[in-house]
Amino acid sequence: MNAPTRSWIKPAAIGALVLALAGVGYTTLAHGEKAPDVTFISIAGDKISTANLRGKVVMVNFWATSCTTCVHEMPAMVDTYNKFKGQGLEFVAVAMQYDPPNYVVNFTETRKLPFTVALDAGGDIARSFGDVTMTPTTFVIGKDGSILKRYVGEPDFKQVHALLQKALAAG
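The structure assignment produced for this chain is given below.
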């Protein structure tokens, strides 16, 4: 005789697994940890290392042209950069490994993105930042190189602005 099937077990197990995996990803690079030493290569071919950005507040945004949330949040990212760049904010938008470079260049040019846009052709940068796979994922890095906040999904920009004001004012 077969035992009755419990239809709730599979969804509950899948939900628990998703939460566990999200927790693992979320704790790989957390608040207070040092940002990894990486070198971004911009679409213009410039090299920018996190070591060279020490002493500045930096936002690193992992995104893709195929990500609807990324495309939706990009005008707010531009506004945030424009609001704080005069106070010393640096911003690097890192296109995911799977994003075709010509799509990234086209998006950057047609949207007139004012900050550095980098390609992560080998996926090394995403791996260095705790194996980022979900887009958008944004890191705010303090002047000392420590991660102040990690946002997965579109952030609350009022909170981002408050954090940036505090970080930029810090000695």
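Interim note for the steering committee: Residues 83 and 121 are 30 Å apart (CA to CA). The radius of gyration is 18 Å.
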